[in-house]
Write a structure and sequence with these properties.
Radius of gyration: 25 Å
Shape: globular
Largest sheet: 7 strands, mixed
């Protein structure tokens, strides 16, 4: 396939593409350093510091003793085994993370595994409007396919940190498209079909779901170029018209919302029913991505996020890496499997589409001619009473589960990155401390907090945990609520809390957090059939967030208009996800409705109030803030 020409008038976001053909998307991956193994002493000390905030003095004394015994005994032995593993594998955590964080989990992966996003297109250009679904679906899909093409031709610009540090690309971007998760008896598998042009041919069809029916068509013409948006629209309109005039389909995709082992057995039964079923599954699994023509018409940003995260199980195939959901009124969301890549990768796809739409004024500017096209093919599954009953039962259970979660999608418009940067403060650290203050005000106590740090500077790196609830952030929150505290005390503690966050984040990016290291040691104890070390049975482990028990689960998605959302880790917890633009801060929050103490609305309101108070504090003391640098 040769180099493609852009359609006249359709500008792609050049800032996200390589400046020349000499730099390829994945060319630096093999040059990246291996993921290091942190010092055992440093890991354990960092763990103890995070524990201290959430336990009594007696409990902490006991935990210190347990940690000392772990350090001098079984912990040292496990650490040495980990060091040996790291000499044989470039990223010692890579496969473990896939297995223990995603693929080995047997509970349904929705709503608590997949993540979702509401696409951020301004309402003045694309308001909710009936009759726009197919047209917008075609244009958004065209930009998605151009992103796919940029990866195939390796012209997507290789990611770098702000300081120029190169980031791993292959371990996540190469897994975005033409991918599916396959359920297993005890563990799932990821199947990858994507190839760059230098690697060979990749499947070039998409999957379209409409009213429980499944269609596919190839998106490349005879010359290997992507169809135009009007041609995509013609194919999608054909599918929409068929579905609107005929009964609803089999909705086999609802089974992907089931318990993983149950879905594995049902899938095996489905394959045994008829050879066509396996062929249809393979077509679905290898498709570039899913286009879901949804019948819902959510209006508010929160409604769009909710329908994207949960929505209609009969209009999803939750095992696919990327599903682009276009609602009946033309608004758009995404649902993604978390196993192959992290939220920031999907954010780049959405941002690419966003910039492309801005450049073209939210309308197609290329040729309008629609060539003769092969019609989409419908995938008709052969079912029996067992599968039909299982689909109905799966959908019913899913409907019950999705009512258990509350979400919020909103923004703080008082200020953003520009104000924070003007005072030489780190925007992410500033926002994280606003979150800590808001939670403390709402619940009158601190919360063990998880924040994602990227370790993509290392070979196939993904994430590390930053435990962002620190002694400094708690002291600052308490000082803000202490009426006797002076202005200078409040400012001093805020700046100290921000500096502490920045330090911890930088350490985590270097692979020097404590959580992945401790997880590795825990897994080694299990894989070697050892008695579980007491450090992981100690109540302090759970109380400080260990084992997936963080009350606040948070992630910063960059300086983009894009956000995303997953459910909380704990029943009494929050998911808190945000992006920071120059003049606003976008926030997605999730909670479980069964917990009477949590409230997404209340936390967001207090978060906004906290930001206002922090700005006022900085404004009143601006010379002092700037003078410290």
């Amino acid at each position: 396939m040769g180099e493609k020409k852009e359609h006249e008038g359709m500008r792609l976001p050049r800032q996200m593409l390589s400046v020349n053909r000499q730099e390829r998307s994945f060319q630096y991956d093999d040059q990246l350093p291996n993921l290091p193994v942190p010092s055992l002493e440093v890991t354990l000390e960092k763990y103890l510091q995070s524990v201290k905030l959430f336990v009594s003095k007696e409990e902490f004394d006991r935990t210190q003793q347990i940690v000392r015994e772990f350090r001098d005994g079984i912990g040292r032995q496990l650490h040495n085994k980990l060091l040996q593993k790291a000499t044989k594998e470039r990223n010692w955590m890579e496969k473990w993370w896939e297995e223990y964080a995603y693929l080995g989990i047997r509970d349904p992966h929705v709503p608590s595994g997949n993540f979702a996003a509401a696409d951020p297109y301004p309402r003045q250009f694309w308001p909710p409007q009936e009759g726009t679904q197919v047209h917008r679906a075609a244009l958004v899909s065209w930009f998605g396919l151009k992103f796919w093409e940029a990866l195939k031709t390796e012209t997507l610009r290789a990611d770098r940190a702000a300081n120029g540090t190169r980031f791993a690309m292959r371990g996540q971007y190469h897994r975005m498209f033409n991918e599916s998760k396959i359920p297993g008896e005890k563990i799932d598998q990821l199947h990858f079909y994507f190839k760059t042009e230098r690697e060979g041919c990749a499947p070039s069809h998409v999957l379209v779901i409409c009213r429980g029916r499944y269609f596919t068509f190839d998106v490349l013409d005879g010359g290997g170029s992507i169809m135009t948006a009007p041609e995509l629209e013609s194919q999608l309109r054909h599918i929409r018209e068929i579905c609107d005039g005929q009964p609803q389909g089999s909705a086999v995709g609802a089974l992907t919302s089931e318990h993983r082992t149950v879905w594995h057995r049902l899938r095996k039964h489905l394959i045994d029913l008829h050879p066509d079923n396996l062929r249809h599954l393979e077509v679905i699994q290898s498709a570039i991505f899913v286009i879901s023509l949804d019948d819902a018409s959510p209006v508010t940003p929160t409604e769009v996020l909710r329908e994207s995260l949960f929505g209609n199980a009969t209009l999803r195939w939750f095992d696919k890496s990327i599903s682009c959901i276009i609602f009946r009124n033309g608004l758009i969301g995404r649902n993604c499997d978390h196993a192959p890549f992290d939220g920031m990768i999907n954010s780049q796809l959405i941002y690419f589409t966003y910039l492309g739409l801005v450049h073209c004024g939210y309308q197609w500017l290329g040729p309008m001619t629609v060539r003769d096209l092969a019609q989409p093919q419908e995938l008709n599954f052969h079912l029996d009473d067992k599968i039909i009953a299982a689909i109905s039962a799966a959908d019913k259970r899913y409907q019950q589960k999705k009512e258990s979660v509350e979400v919020l999608n909103d923004s703080f418009d008082g200020f953003g990155r520009s104000f924070i940067r003007k005072h030489k403060l780190h925007p992410d650290a500033f926002v994280q401390n606003a979150l800590q203050y808001a939670y403390y005000r709402l619940h009158q106590k601190p919360a063990p907090t998880y924040q994602t740090a990227t370790t993509r500077k290392f070979y196939n790196g993904r994430t590390e945990t930053v435990r962002t609830c620190t002694k400094e952030s708690v002291t600052w929150s308490q000082t803000m609520l202490d009426k006797s505290a002076s202005e200078r005390q409040r400012l001093t503690m805020l700046l100290l809390a921000i500096d502490t966050h920045v330090r911890l984040m930088e350490e985590a990016k270097e692979g020097k957090g404590c959580d992945r290291h401790l997880l590795g040691l825990q897994i080694l104890s299990m894989e070697n059939d050892l008695t579980m070390p007491e450090i992981f049975l100690d109540p302090s482990w759970r109380k400080s967030g260990g084992g997936g028990n963080f009350i606040l689960s948070s992630s910063f998605l960059g300086y983009l208009p894009v956000t995303g959302c997953v459910t909380p880790m704990c029943r009494n917890g929050y998911g808190f996800f945000y992006s920071i633009e120059d003049q606003r801060i976008n926030v997605n929050i999730s909670t479980f409705t069964a917990d009477a103490e949590t409230s997404a609305d209340k936390l967001f309101d207090l978060f906004c109030q906290s930001l206002v108070e922090m700005k006022q504090l900085i404004d009143r003391n601006s010379p002092i803030v700037k003078a410290r640098l």
